[in-house]
Amino acid sequence: MYSKTKTCVLNGLNGYDIDVEADLSTGLQAFNIVGLPDLSIRESKERVKSAISNSGYFLPPGRITINLAPANLKKDGSQMDLAIAVSLLLAIGVIEYLPDEKTIFLGELSLDGRIITFDGALPMIISLKELGFKKFFIPQTIKDEVNIVQGIEIYPVSHLKELVDCLNGITEIKKEEIINVNLDEEVKYDIDFSDIKGQENLKRAMEISAAGGHNLLMVGPPGSGKTMIAKRLPTILPKLTFDECIECTKIYSVAGKLKNNKLITQRPFRSPHHTSSPISLVGGGKIPKPGEVSLAHNGVLFLDEFPEFSKQAIEVLRQPMEDGKVTISRVNSSITYYSNFVTVCALNPCPCGNYGSQTEKCTCSQLQIQRYLSKISGPILDRIDIQVEVEPVKYDDLSSKEVLETSFDIRKRVEKAREIQLKRYKNEKIYNNASLSARQIKKYIVLDEKLEKIIEFAFKKFKFSARSFNKILKLTRTIADLDGSEEIKEEHLLEAIRYRSLSNKYWS
User: Fold this and answer.
1) Sheet containing 103-105: which strands, arranged edge to edge?
2) HSE-up of 62 (CA within 13 Å, CB side)?
């Protein structure tokens, strides 16, 4: 007795259709699963047998073989349980209706026959839709995660018996309605830029960072507002587009961090603790999962107390910060996750935090300060576009009754600058100034003779690297966009140079 059904396996964010073949033959009683299954799939035979039994059906004695094809692709994940059970029930004649080739079964089985949730449903279904599959039987609990995918039929099921009765034509499972997502509604935040007293220079730097997608580093004493303002950066970033929402939701789905199975419509903000390991930052594990750099995709990765991170943890950020993606390699395969984020780093100028203070005495030795700051290497500093020194908040600013600018007001300017960039780069595969390549910089950023002399002088004085030179040009372009000017002016360039000169004070 033979039958076949279809399911899916994930490799990173890409789903692949899998044939689940069931064969029942006479012989000594056995239940074998072949086709490069991992431990979670090898264990599924116990879940499947119990689920079938507790749903009122019985497997005949004999030899059962389940083949997962193609055999050269490693399979993992409990989502194959449902397809295995349906294939077995087809083979023994309990299910009379043979699903067509374009029907996919996804779901983990509990011992009592309930069909329960699993990680990675959205990227699986999107990938399979692109492969031409249209009909999906999924757990009832994840319908809100996948009912945003247009052009498919989704049938949410809560129990194995319910599915069997549906396939046999006894009952009917209502098709899930596909919804159109409305992203025009204003995203509500509990925090706002109007909460911040003073720090106008830092606010300006944050606005430039948001407008161009630039990485930012803050150096200042404890209590000066570095963490407070960093947490408010997402409130001035442009609203997520639908494609960006899908990208973020796919990552969180694979990571098992999707709350209430809802589409992510807010810019992610990730703030890992400084004790985080390199693997927790970039992702990994036996079955590679997304790390913090991927969970921050299309949002903000905030690294507070930056020098307190291990040297190795800091250095693994190089590739994701530069490429906008992270690749996790294993012996049999490599997996790539998105990691296009704005990095915001905050640190004290020394271990005690008072180095350079006019009011407090620094208790650190020169060697301690050097060791503390040396954790941040030149290549990492080169990848941070904006460097800002944060001063303590003045009493006059704290006690001021002045009505301060809101995040909404700042975001309007940021969105206007982003619109200029989108229009300018409509024929390129980039969306902001921070993503410009060296070739694109030459094409889109033109300096007159006077500005060329200014940047040449700064290059020699501050001993900028080639990467820093390009960062200055990108910053200049963003500052001009915020000013609504297609022409780059002297004040735009001078402001950009100022944001790149801090490393000479602390790391020269």
Assistant:
1) 103-105, 135-139, 153-157
2) 14
Q: Is residue 491 part of a domain?
A: no
Element at 79 (helix H, strand E) = none
Contact 226, 220 (CB under 8 A): yes
Please tell me the distance from the alpha carbon of residue 96 to that of residue 85, in angstroms, as a whole number: 14
214: number of Cβ within 10 Å: 23
CB atoms within 10 A of CB 256: 12
Q: Are 130 and 7 in the same domain?
A: yes
**Does 197 lie in the same domain as 163?**
no
68 and 23 in contact (C-beta within 8 Å)? no
CA separation, residue 433 to residues 318, 319, 425, 474, 480 (Å):
19, 19, 9, 6, 11
Q: Where are the beta strands (DSSP E) in 164-306?
A: 216-219, 269-270, 283-284, 289-290, 300-303
The total domain count for the chain is 2
Q: Is 0.90 surpassed by the pTM of this model?
A: yes
Asked whether the beta carbons of 3 and 90 are under 8 A apart, the reply is: yes
Q: Please, which pLDDT band fits residue 397 given cuts at 50, 70 and 90?
A: confident
215 within 8 A of 209, measured Cβ to Cβ: yes
Q: pLDDT tens for residues 312-359?
A: 999 999 999 999 999 998 777 789 999 999 999 999 999 999 898 878
Same domain (yes/no): 106, 198: no
In CATH, what number is assigned to the domain containing residue 354? 3.40.50.300
Same domain? For 294 and 338 the reply is yes
**Residue 135: pLDDT band with limits 50, 70, 90:** very high
